[in-house]
Task: inverse folding
């Protein structure tokens, strides 16, 4: 068997070509159809998969667990307090040990260098389940969702409104540019993405025919957009910054008025989740009590509207993660893309 993906880690989108990312999106679509038709797809039969989570998760953990099981493998959850990683044992040594026992390793945590070191030492595929820098498995699910809605990717326009320098913004910027999708990061100047990431995006966009635009002007940024995307204003680990972020980002809240400013009746709304669209969470209640706001990055009206695709995205995490795992850790015949 031969696969151009076999044995590779999935650490950041920039490590993959446009054709390779497109292949994973299409393979995820195929696996979604197989699951819907109850067709077996046990490409990892008999294997063992380690799931390392230093940060909390609902979708990523659930998707990796179910994907592993659907692929015929065994998932082993290793939470932040369960193993010695980084406290009593180096990342390198942990990677070497886990690589002797497991056939693939998922890692979620703060540091991109940890997931990179794991990949260098483990000798088996390592998958990035989110770091402060990138959220690449989210991207395969998101672009699958966009493709399901529009039938194609290249030439579409995404306007991301919110924290312009978090993992999801970084990943959307670079992945869009690789795939020939126009990406606009609509955010205050104080939250503009890192110059290196913008430069990377421009390089890819020059090759793919996409465009990269960073703006603090909402009306200009969302005009004509096919997709309005947002994420939490305060990412995991940044909770001390709630007050500052609310002040900075309230003008960028995705509400009905912002949706109408796209002047595109076919526009869809996307969010990687979890979302603060009401006060049904402890953070939501605290924000209401302290700052007098009932909704943060997206209003409840938009969240529950006909534009909303966030739960399709959430389901597609399963199919996307399955595609990434099967392609890299399975014995599939994928000679070229
Ligand atoms: N979107 C996402 O990664 O969700 P979780 O944090 O719940 O895994
Ligand atoms: N930017 C968010 C994404 C959560 C899926 C965070 O890092 O908390």
Result:
């Amino acid at each position: 068997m031969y696969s151009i993906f076999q044995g590779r880690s999935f650490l950041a989108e920039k490590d993959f070509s446009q054709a390779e990312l497109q292949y994973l999106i299409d393979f995820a679509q195929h696996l979604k159809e197989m699951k819907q038709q109850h067709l077996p797809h046990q490409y990892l039969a008999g294997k063992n998969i380690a799931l390392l989570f230093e940060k909390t998760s609902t979708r990523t953990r659930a998707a990796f667990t179910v994907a592993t099981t659907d692929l015929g493998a065994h998932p082993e959850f290793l939470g932040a307090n369960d193993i010695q990683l980084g406290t009593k044992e180096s990342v390198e040594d942990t990677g070497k040990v886990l690589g002797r026992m497991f056939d693939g390793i998922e890692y979620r945590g703060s540091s991109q260098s940890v997931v990179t070191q794991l990949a260098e030492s483990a000798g088996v595929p390592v998958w990035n389940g989110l770091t402060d820098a990138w959220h690449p498995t989210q991207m395969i699910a998101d672009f699958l969702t966009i493709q399901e809605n529009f039938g194609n990717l290249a030439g579409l326009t995404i306007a991301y409104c919110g924290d312009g320098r978090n993992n999801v913004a970084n990943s959307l910027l670079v992945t869009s540019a690789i795939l020939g999708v126009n990406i606009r990061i609509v955010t205050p100047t104080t939250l503009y993405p890192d110059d290196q990431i913008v430069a990377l995006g421009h390089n890819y966009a020059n090759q793919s025919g996409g465009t990269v635009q960073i703006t603090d002007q909402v009306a200009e940024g969302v005009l004509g957009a096919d997709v309005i995307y947002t994420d939490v204003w305060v990412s995991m680990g940044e909770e001390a910054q709630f007050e500052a972020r609310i002040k900075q980002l309230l003008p960028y809240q995705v509400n009905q008025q912002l949706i109408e400013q796209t002047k595109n009746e076919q526009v869809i709304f996307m969010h990687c989740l979890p979302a603060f669209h009401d006060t049904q969470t402890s953070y939501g209640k605290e924000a209401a009590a302290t700052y007098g706001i009932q909704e943060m990055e997206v209003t409840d009206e938009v969240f529950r509207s006909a534009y909303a695709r966030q739960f399709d995205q959430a389901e597609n995490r399963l199919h996307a993660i399955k595609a990434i795992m099967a392609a890299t850790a399975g014995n599939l015949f994928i000679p070229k893309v």
